Amino acid sequence: MTKPTMEDIVSLSKRRGFVFQSSDIYGGLSGFYDYGPLGVELVNNIKKTWWDSVVHARDNIYGIDGAIIQNPLLWQASGHLEGFTDPMVEDVVTHKRYRADQLAGVDSTDLKELKQLLKGKKSPEGNDLSEPRFFNMMMQTWVGPVEDEAAKVYLRPETAGAIFINFLNVRDSMRAKIPFGIAQIGKAFRNEISPRDFIFRVRELEQMEMQYFIRPDDQEESYEEWRKFAWNFLIDKLGIKEVNLSWHEHGESERAHYAKAAHDIYFNFPNGSKELWGTHNRSDFDLSNHSRVSKQDLSYIDEAANTRFIPYVIESSVGVGRLLLAVLTDAFSRDQVDNETRTVLRFKPQIAPYKAAVSPLLKNKPELVKIARGIYQNLQQNLGMVIWDDNGNIGKRYRRQDEIGTPFCITIDFETLDNQSVTLRHRDTTKQTRIAADKLVETLNKELIN
Question: Coil, strand, or helix at residue 436?
Fold first, then answer.
């Protein structure tokens, strides 16, 4: 089965209502995208699956929803004001900016190395380039009526900051004991120099992050636990094929200066094998720095052991947009049915936007439509999202539902009038069976659990 191209994914996403270019009627805005009717359902299902697995399935992980704009001292303590940078060069004629490392074709942030590699090179427009320099990717704005330095704040570049500064609040309000975690799903903003590859690298993104606070002695065990969680979640909960996944361990030069260990799960995207999900040992860097800058004691007292320490943190972090792109890519396939090529999204049924489609064989037969409407309403109440489809012949309806990933199609025909059975069609196999209408909810619920 041939891997889809990025053009395949982009075309299907717009045509079927998964992802649209933001501000499309005005020519769009680079690095910003909107989720359409099917995209928002798929994303919400992915987020709910993650939240259920991280927060609801464990009694020592607590959820929060932090503000997008925080006191700027947070970003001073975290190092973002000084260190959240990418190397940049500028076209001296058009003043367009480009990632220096990308133009040089290396994975490096060493300005001296980049300067040497770019010597004599031109911009994509054929003009001279400026010397490489660092560019801070934090987006800034102002609070209050006066736009001066005292009122300057930043849109958060990551969601973890709100977790660390709420460590005391969560610990005290929930009477949490080490080890415990804090999880959050939320928007972050990065002023990327060169957003690219559809929703892979954008300027407005959404993250699902969990920070797990532990004793320093437990760092290796906890680190491996959360690596295993990320891998198993992708395969077992989202149905991603293991063959599309691989591990990448950060070398010493790749790791952030505070990280004791870092592993990324790479996914085989249309644009190559690239980072999807990160697991990092952040040591005690975050709480130590917030203690220093805020003058608040963020140490933890273990009364049983009569010890005090700054907790270490194991981070599990994944971008929602990249996860959506991975799910779409992994599910996309083409095969031959009745001598025709069909496009099908083989989503795991639990995360599919629609769980089933209900169709009367003929929409101009009131007796079929009445029964179909009753079945449709019953499934809506018991399964969640169900779609009504009576447009075109039954073959076209099946192809349409295959292309949006609907796992089951239910057709009400003239045999239904005789014995109250319906045709149940399975997306992946195209197999059709007859089933009693009053057994539909029970049958489909079993299918959705497995």
Answer: strand
- Token pair of 143, please? 């609070």
Q: Cα–Cα distance between 100 and 90 in angstroms, integer? A: 9
Q: Quick one: 43 and 185 in the same domain? A: yes
Name the DSSP letter for residue 235. I
Give Cα 315 distance to the centre of its chain. 16
Residues comprising the chain, all counted: 450
Query: pTM for the full model?
Result: 0.91
379 or 257, which is more confident: 379
Least Cα distance to 426 among 409, 413, 441 occurs for: 409
- Evaluate whether 356 touches 398 at the Cβ level (below 8 Å): no
pLDDT digits (tens, 9 = 90+) for 257-316: 788 999 999 999 999 999 999 999 999 999 999 999 999 999 999 988 889 999 999 999
* Segments forming the whole domain that contains residue 91: 85-136
Question: Is the same domain home to 67 and 97?
Answer: no
Question: Which among 371, 270, 327, 342 has a CA at the least distance from the CA of 38?
Answer: 327
CA-CA distance, 135 to 137, in Å (whole number)?
Answer: 6
Q: How far apart are CA 450 and CA 448, in angstroms?
A: 6
Tokens of 37: 């009717």
The number of folded domains in the chain is 3
1 found inside a domain: no
